[in-house]
Amino acid sequence: MYRKLLKKKRDTIQPLKTNAIDSSGLVDLTKLVKGYIGESSDIVQHDMVIAGLIKATLFHVSGLSDRDMIDNSVIKPIMQMSQREVANISHEELIKKLSQEVINLSSVQSIKSLDQSVHLLMTGDSLLIVDGVDKVIILGTKGYEKRGIEEPKSEVVIRGPRDGFIEDIQTNIVLLRRRIADPNFIIQTGEIGQRAKIKYSIGYIKGLVTEELVNEVRYRISCIKTDEVLETGTLEQLIEDNVLSPFPQLMHTERPDKTTAALMNGKVIILIDGTPYSLITPTTFEQLLKSPEDYYDRWHIGTLIRLIRYLAAFFALFLPSLYIAMVTYHHGMIPTTLALSIAGTREGVPFPAFLEAFLMEITIELLREAGIRLPRAIGQTIGIVGGLVIGDAAVRAGFVSPVMVIVVAITAVASFAIPSYSFSIALRMLRFSFMIAASMFGLYGIVISYITINVHLVGLRSFGSYYTSPFAPFRYKDWLDLVFRAPLSQQRTRTNEPGTLDDIKQN
To answer: Which residues constitute the domain of residue 217?
Structure first.
């Protein structure tokens, strides 16, 4: 579907238009820059005279640039230049002298594109315009406030590194570089968003990842024509294969160790400046039920935890619909004692099983959403206490049965056991469709819905990889790290999805 939507756009990608500087006068260039930036009050303009002979103007954005760096490494050395140093010197020699001898910065360049110059100004660099010079000197003076490295907020770490990504893309790259000291670890940076021009990076390990996958990621990003992409969730929606599928086709994480493991398995990662998440592509169904802790503990523990997760996914998707089907249509499948107990608890309940379950599930979802939006200190308390109070009150009032409250509670707890939040949301959405099918056709409706979802999953792709691999197509070697986690000494090869240039990861 994705290729059909973008087939006509492949040949229409245009390079960024640039406005070359055609005036060398200080006044003219200053007016041109001001024409670009408008009347922004946070743009600081500093006029100076070099050695009492040559006029110059420095622009920087307050708050994005390091003021101490500008004062001590740019303005002060320039103002200390003598007339002997600038007398009878050509423009090219002056730029060379300023860049290599006077200005004490590691990043100094001169360009003629005014569009590019102003864009770099708006990202934190400073512009130095010298009278008579038809180039703008770009000074690397970025120095804005940023959050310190902390433990991931959305992914609780039981065992493993406690550092997490932050909103600064350069810091995130450093966190990955600390873990991968391989010169083949490639980071390529670009800009996305026609107006916002947000910095992004793609990362991969050369010699592991296939060139086709890297080119596909580059192509899909290059096809994006929108004003801004401020978060990885926005980018994910713009480059995924099937926009109608409820299942996540890219995996996001705050954890550098999880991102590193993906790189080592021949995947491509995407980072965006301003967000503490990385995107991992391609993604398969079974990876959404894995966690880095599976490999930090011994294989017995890892296997047990994975079995619990698969069981939790089953409960989160099927448990309410199975209750509806059994109570409404298939009484004979319930043991007699249990059937009598359920019938006794439902005595006096005015609603059918489907409506009873539907109302309780909606209530739980409301409480969960309210708990997220409330301040963190009281959000979890409201969700737990609110569920207990409302459930008890509903039972006492005779609106729902105690068994229904137990079913809904187990379902809610099971959805929290799934590591991927996006995958958990998908199961929560599909749960309602299973409930509707169970209320109409009983177990037959559940089976038909299950077959329909499996047909969809088998046909789903993530950047060319089979979403249901190694279940379908069946990859027997990958089953060593699927539901059961074999000892690490036996996991000698990488997974078949995605295909890699080097399948051996352990000799």
So the answer is: 169-283
